[in-house]
Amino acid sequence: MIHFTAQVVPMESVDADVVVIPVFESELTSPRLMELNKTLGGHLKSALADAGFKGKATDQLAIHSLGKIKASQIVLIGLGKKNECDLDGLRKAAGEIAKKTKTLKQVAWMVEAGPTKGLSLNGMASAIVEGFVMGSYRFDRYKKSDKDKVKGNVSLTLCLAESRDIDGVQIMMKRGQLLGESTNLARDLANTPPNDMMPDHFVKVAKDLFKKTSVEIEVIDQKKAAHYGMGAFLGVAQGSKSDAYILILRHRPQKSAAPIVLVGKGVTFDSGGISIKPGRAMSDMKADMSGAAAVLSAMNVIVKLGADINVTAIMPLTENMPSGGALRPGDIVTAMNGKTIEIINTDAEGRLILGDALSYAVQEENAAKIVDIATLTGACSVAIGDLASGVLGNHQPLIDELIKVGRETGEWLWQLPLFDGYLDYLKSDTADIANASEAGKAGTCTGAKFLEQFVGSTHWAHLDIASVMKCPNTKGYMVKGMSGAGARLLAEWVMSQAAKVS
Ligand code: BES
Ligand code: MN
Ligand code: ZN
């Protein structure tokens, strides 16, 4: 448990193990630091010089307070250049500090009084807590030996230099906590081993999460999916022993407005099916439900903050397994919108289940606009590495909005083209469309082109998060393992839409 509070209290008397002082590059002689230097009897200046601390982003310096202030330790954390530091810089710094909570239980963070580079106090309060919550994430549920487990409670106090809107800051801290915890929820879902994260378990998590809320939950089982004619979704599901579901959540604060629809790929394990994947890193495919995890986690924020906008979340959940009953390359299935699909590669399963989910969004939910999110193609990492997710779609203003929100949340999106010509790559000799191209060129673009066939004229954007599904190392607020990507991005985007209509 982490407890968060805001207080107006000078750093000398704050009740904490450690006082964190964020420092911008080349501001080592600010009045605050000079005053602290005096308090410490000149010890700060010499420590800075000895350590070569410059205030560069994530530079850190820990100093013993020598009993001159209440806390025993002072940590200076670099934020880089003042005119370059944004909210994500603060998030990263807070994420680094959170890692110290194995030994330090009470952390106090000095927040500058005035807004920094146009950053509002409220925005900063939310970002610091978000970063702190995400940075303290561990996935240790399956570790029986508990020597690495973080024990006990931790508190984070934001120290405001002057009396400001403390209540407002507290509200923003709560918001930051919810955003951070929702990202951690998405991480938990994706990190959970695939034998414990079958479709039925994902449904149970969703039911528990929204138990005491006004959210309407509908679970479409395979029988009902057959009634809707979801042959593409069912085709993928038929290879697995576990039951597949399409999980639907409806948040309806408005009476009649057409909803925003979020669609998330929920393949709880992707073996590739009969077109089986090579063994290397196949275990990562437990996280092939990261799109669904992001959608569920974003809904958690949207619902708990009571965003005044109608939202539907659709999560097709299934395994992709090889078996005697599995789809074969060469099979033809008929999707909900009536299109026939030739299965070229059973490993291109995400687009099959999403195709039917998108048709459902258009035909049954009357979607005003759709954003889907999926670990769709390995080609996305080849194209842009792990620094961004791919974004493609049929409506440029929607794509631009998502890119903008992505910069703010630190979840960068990079647009890739959706040329009409890509449809030629998906020509089939025997069906309306093929699920993959033989040549395998422009994998991310052809994947999106396939999905476009199921949205009609509805405004739609597709986020390919395969590139950022996994964090290779622990850094800033990132923790080695599955990233929880997309949860904050979708939540913030939906909330920006709510602000628009009200
Ligand atoms: N789930 C994978 C994509 C993926 C790969 C996500 C690596 C995260 C990390 C997806 O279902 C897949 O297998 N895509 C194929 C598509 C191809 C067969 C057209 C791919 O990327 O090779
Ligand atoms: Mn696959
Ligand atoms: Zn997949």
Describe the structure.
The chain has 502 residues and is an alpha/beta fold. It has 2 domains: 2-162, Leucine Aminopeptidase, subunit E, domain 1, CATH 3.40.220.10; 186-501, Aminopeptidase (3-Layer(aba) Sandwich), CATH 3.40.630.10. Helices cover 35% and strands 20% of the residues. The chain has 15 helices and 20 strands. It has helices spanning 31-39, 43-51, 87-98, 121-135, 166-191, 199-209, 222-228, 231-237, 290-304, 350-363, 379-384, 396-409, 422-425, 443-452, 487-501, and strands at 2-8, 18-23, 60-64, 73-78, 106-111, 154-160, 216-220, 245-251, 260-264, 266-270, 311-320, 332-334, 340-342, 369-374, 389-393, 413-415, 433-434, 459-464, 470-471, 481-482. The strands form 4 sheets. Strands 7, 8, 9, 10, 11, 14, 15, 16 and 18 form a 9-stranded mixed beta sheet that branches. Helix 9 packs across helix 15 (487-501) and helix 10 packs parallel to helix 14 (443-452). The longest helix is centred in the middle third of the chain and has 26 residues, at 166-191. The chain is elongated, with a radius of gyration of 24 Å. The protein starts with a strand and ends with a helix. The model has no long low-confidence stretch (mean pLDDT 95). The structure holds ligand BES, manganese (II) ion and zinc ion. Zinc ion binds next to strand 10. Ligand BES binds at residues 270, 288, 345, 347-350, 375, 377-379, 436, 443, 466, 469.
